[in-house]
C-alpha cells in the first residue's frame, strides 16, 4: 500500500466506503457556515461602530452616576467578545475546509442494533449551533474510541458515565485541500504504516501536531485528569513535549469554564524552544499559553538581594572547562543542602531577633508582650515578615485606644524601630553566614550593587528568601508545565511547590541531564509533591531512525528503549586532524539544500559553535548559499527557530530536532559532560546523523 498515493490507487472497497460523499456534504456545510459567520461578523462590526457613535453623541447627557456609561461599556464588551468568538469559529472552519476529519469510528452502543458513525477532526462541527455534530473534536469523549481501541468491545467515559458497546470499524483518512487522498479501514498494520509515513515525512520545520497518530500510551497521558501532578519520564524522542502540549489542549477543552489559556504556564528552557512549539496550540484551536524562564523569574525575585546572577549557560560552560566545578554545583542543589538550610533558618528564630520595649505618645508595648505575640500568635508567619504583624498589632491597639490615627512620621519611625529588632534582614548576609557555618567558601562580602550570585547559589538564596519572608504564590496559574525536568534541581522544585499550588505536567528524560551524572528527579519529587503525584514512563522512541537511535543508545550505554521500525542511512562516524577539516567535510551535507528542510551543526561549547558558525558562514556564503534565509547561529539570546542550517551548542539544541545533524566534537574531550553532549546531539537527528571528531585523542582513549 502506498500511503502517499492518490485516491485512484486505493482498493475498490476502501474508496467506496472512504466517505467521499460525506466529505462533499461536509465541505458544502462548512462553506455555508463560513458564509453565515461572515455576515454575522459584518453585522457585529456594524453594531460595535454604532455603539461607539452612540457613546460619542450622547456621553455628555448620560446620568451623572455613570450607570448608563457602565451599561454601554458592558454591552460593547459583550458584542466585541461575541465577535471574537465568531472569528475564532470562522478560523477553525476555514482550517477544516482543508482537512475536515482524519478518523472515523463505527460504534454500536450496548443494547442497540445499529452502529453510529463518528467522524473525528481537529474541532467540532455541526450544521447549526446546538445540533448533532457532523464531526467530533479529537478531544470529545467519544473520540477516545479512535485512539484506544481496535475492532471489538470498547467503551469511553462520557460526562454521564461509562458508555460501552462494540467498535465495528475504525477508519483513517488523509484529506488535503478538501481532497480525499486516502481512506482506509484500519488495523494495527495500517496504523503502523500511517505512523511511519508521518514520522518519515519531511517538510515540517517546527514540532508537528500529532492528533492523527496519537498512540495509546500517549493518549492515556493526554486524557489523564485524575492526577494533580503528572510526571513523565520519557526516552529521547518519545513524544513528551508533543504529549504535554496536546494534554494542555485537552484540559482547555474539557475545563472551558475554569481553565483559560492565560491560566496555563510553561516553564521553558529558552526562547528558541518556546518559538519551536508556539504554533501547536493555535493549530489545535487553542490560544497560546504563557511561557516563562524560571531563571529570569528568579533573577527578578532576587533584585534587592544581589545586583546580578550568573546565567545557567555560563555555569555549563564553566563545568565543561573544569569538570571539578560540577561537584560544588551539585552539592548546593542537593536535598541535604536544602535540609541544612532549613535547619539553619530555624536557629535564626533565636539568633536574629532582639526585642526592646517601645512606646509612642504614652502607649507602650514591652518586650515580653512582643515575644508572646512573636512566638505565639504570629509564629506561622515567616521570620522576617513576622515583626510587621507585631507592629500592626501595636498600631491597631494604639489607634483603638486613642480613637485617632498615628501620623505618617510616627508610622515611619515605628517601622524603623521594629525593623531594627532584627540584627539583619539581608538574605545575602544570612546565606553567607550559613555557608561559613557549613565550612564552604563564602560569597564576596560586598554591597548589594556589586553582588553577583553564581548560578548554583541562585535557587538556594531564593529558597532562603521565601523561607524567611514568605511568598504570595501565583494563584492565577492553574496548570504548570515543566519541560526538561531533569535540568531543575531540588531547591527549584521546592520553590515551584510553594509558588504553584496547581495541577502540573512535568516531563523530561534523566538520560539527557546536562551533567556528567544523570539526575533522576523522580527519586525526590514524591517527597515534595506527595501522593498527588503520578509517574509515567514512556520508553518508546519515535523521532530517530533505528540506525540513529541504536547508535546514540549504545554510545550512552542506554538499553530497554523500544524503537519504531523506521530505517535510514547508517550513522557516519569520522575522525579528522583538526576542526577545519571536519567542517570542510560537513560542507557538502549542508550545501545540498534540496535534501533537508532543517539541518544542524552541533558543537559542545558556545565558543566552538560560534567558531564553526563563522567558518561555515564564510564558506557557504562564497558558494551562493542563501545565508539570510537559511542560516542561523543560535546562542542564548536567540528567539526564533528557522528552517535551513542551524549552528549551535548541544545544550541549546535540547528539545529541538532536525532532519540532518552533524556533530563536531573534540576527540580529546570524552568525560561525563562531553558524553552527554554527544548523546543529546545524536538524539536530535530525525533522518540522518554524521558524528565527526577532530584532534588528538585524549589520554584515556589513546592509552
Ligand atoms: N504519536 C506520534 N505520532 C507522530 N509523531 C510522533 C508521535 N509521538 C512523537 N512523535 C514525533 O516524535 C518526535 C519527538 O517528539 P517530541 O519532541 O515531543 O519528543 P520528546 O520526548 O519531547 O523528545 P526529547 O526529549 O528528545 O527532546 C517529533 O517529531 C514528534 O512529532
UniProtKB/TrEMBL annotation:
Record's compositionally biased regions (Basic and acidic residues): 1-16
Binding site for ATP: 234-241
Gene Ontology biological process: recombinational repair
Pfam families for the chain: UvrD-helicase (PF00580)
Ranges where the record places region Disordered: 1-21
One GO location term (cellular component): cytosol
Keyword Cell membrane set for record: no
Domain of life: Bacteria
Keywords assigned by UniProt, alphabetized: ATP-binding, Helicase, Hydrolase, Nucleotide-binding
Transmembrane segments: none
Protein name (database record): DNA helicase-2/ATP-dependent DNA helicase PcrA
Amino acid at each position: 500500500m502506498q500511503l502517499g498515493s492518490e485516491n485512484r490507487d486505493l482498493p475498490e472497497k476502501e474508496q467506496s466506503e472512504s466517505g467521499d460523499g460525506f466529505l462533499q456534504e461536509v465541505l458544502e456545510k462548512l462553506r455555508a457556515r463560513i458564509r453565515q459567520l461572515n455576515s454575522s461578523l459584518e453585522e457585529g462590526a456594524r453594531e460595535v461602530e454604532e455603539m461607539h457613535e452612540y457613546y460619542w453623541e450622547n456621553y455628555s447627557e448620560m446620568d451623572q452616576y455613570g450607570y448608563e456609561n457602565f451599561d454601554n461599556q458592558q454591552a460593547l464588551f459583550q458584542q466585541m467578545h461575541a465577535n471574537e468568538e465568531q472569528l475564532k469559529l470562522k478560523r477553525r472552519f476555514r482550517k477544516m475546509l482543508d482537512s475536515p476529519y482524519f478518523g472515523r469510528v463505527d460504534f454500536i452502543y450496548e443494547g442497540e442494533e445499529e452502529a453510529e458513525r463518528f467522524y473525528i477532526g481537529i474541532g467540532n462541527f455541526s450544521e447549526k449551533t446546538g445540533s448533532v455534530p457532523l464531526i467530533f473534536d479529537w478531544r470529545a469523549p467519544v473520540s477516545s474510541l479512535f485512539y484506544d481501541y481496535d475492532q471489538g468491545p470498547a467503551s469511553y467515559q462520557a460526562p454521564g458515565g461509562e458508555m460501552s458497546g462494540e467498535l465495528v470499524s475504525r477508519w483513517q483518512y488523509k484529506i488535503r485541500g478538501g481532497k480525499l487522498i486516502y481512506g482506509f479501514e484500519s488495523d494495527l498494520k495500517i496504523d503502523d504504516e500511517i505512523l511511519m509515513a508521518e514520522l518519515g515525512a519531511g517538510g515540517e520545520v517546527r514540532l508537528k501536531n500529532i492528533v492523527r497518530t496519537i498512540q495509546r500510551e500517549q493518549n492515556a497521558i493526554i486524557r489523564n485528569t485524575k492526577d494533580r501532578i503528572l510526571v513523565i519520564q520519557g526516552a529521547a524522542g518519545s513524544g513528551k513535549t508533543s504529549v504535554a502540549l496536546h494534554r494542555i489542549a485537552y484540559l482547555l477543552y474539557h475545563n472551558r469554564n475554569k481553565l483559560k489559556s492565560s491560566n496555563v504556564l510553561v516553564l521553558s528552557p529558552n526562547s528558541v524552544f518556546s518559538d519551536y512549539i508556539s504554533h501547536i496550540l493555535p493549530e489545535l484551536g487553542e490560544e497560546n499559553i504563557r511561557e516563562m524562564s524560571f531563571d529570569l523569574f528568579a533573577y527578578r525575585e532576587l533584585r534587592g538581594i544581589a545586583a546580578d546572577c550568573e546565567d545557567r549557560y555560563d555555569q555549563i560552560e564553566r563545568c565543561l572547562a573544569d569538570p571539578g566545578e560540577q561537584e560544588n554545583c551539585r552539592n548546593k542543589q542537593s536535598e541535604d543542602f536544602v535540609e541544612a538550610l532549613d535547619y539553619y533558618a530555624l536557629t535564626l528564630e533565636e539568633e536574629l531577633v532582639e526585642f526592646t520595649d517601645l512606646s509612642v505618645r504614652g502607649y507602650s508595648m514591652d518586650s515580653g508582650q512582643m515575644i508572646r505575640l512573636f512566638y505565639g500568635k504570629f509564629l506561622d508567619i515567616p521570620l522576617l515578615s513576622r515583626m510587621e504583624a507585631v507592629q500592626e498589632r501595636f498600631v491597631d491597639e494604639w489607634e483603638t485606644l486613642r480613637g485617632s490615627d498615628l501620623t505618617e512620621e510616627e508610622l515611619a519611625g515605628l517601622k524603623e524601630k521594629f525593623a531594627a529588632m532584627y540584627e539583619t534582614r539581608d538574605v545575602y548576609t544570612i546565606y553567607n553566614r550559613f555557608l561559613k557555618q557549613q565550612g564552604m567558601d563564602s560569597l564576596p562580602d560586598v554591597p548589594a550593587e556589586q553582588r553577583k550570585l553564581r548560578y548554583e547559589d541562585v535557587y538556594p538564596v531564593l529558597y532562603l528568601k521565601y523561607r524567611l519572608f514568605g511568598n504570595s504564590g501565583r494563584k492565577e496559574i492553574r496548570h504548570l508545565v515543566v519541560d526538561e525536568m531533569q535540568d531543575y534541581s531540588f531547591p527549584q522544585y521546592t520553590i515551584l511547590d510553594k509558588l504553584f499550588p496547581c495541577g502540573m505536567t512535568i516531563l523530561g528524560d534523566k538520560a539527557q541531564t546536562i551533567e556528567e551524572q544523570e539526575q533522576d528527579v523522580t527519586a525526590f519529587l514524591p517527597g515534595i509533591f506527595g501522593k498527588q503525584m503520578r509517574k509515567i514512563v514512556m520508553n518508546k522512541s519515535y523521532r530517530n531512525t533505528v540506525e540513529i537511535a541504536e547508535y546514540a543508545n549504545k554510545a550512552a550505554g542506554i538499553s530497554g528503549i523500544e524503537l519504531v521500525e523506521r530505517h535510514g542511512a547508517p550513522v557516519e562516524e569520522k575522525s579528522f586532524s583538526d576542526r577545519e577539516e571536519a567542517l570542510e567535510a560537513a560542507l557538502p551535507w549542508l550545501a545540498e539544500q534540496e535534501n533537508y528542510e532543517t539541518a544542524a551543526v552541533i558543537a559542545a561549547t558556545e565558543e566552538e559553535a560560534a567558531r564553526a558558525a563563522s567558518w561555515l558562514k564564510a564558506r557557504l556564503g562564497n558558494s551562493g548559499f542563501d545565508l539570510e534565509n537559511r542560516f542561523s547561529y543560535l546562542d542564548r539570546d536567540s528567539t526564533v527557530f528557522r528552517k535551513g542550517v542551524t549552528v549551535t551548542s548541544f545544550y541549546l539544541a535540547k528539545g529541538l530536532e532536525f532532519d540532518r545533524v552533524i556533530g563536531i566534537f573534540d576527540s580529546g574531550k570524552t568525560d561525563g559532560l562531553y558524553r552527554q553532549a554527544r548523546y543529546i546531539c545524536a538524539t536530535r537527528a530525525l533522518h540522518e546523523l554524521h558524528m565527526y571528531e577532530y584532534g588528538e585523542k585524549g589520554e584515556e582513549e589513546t592509552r
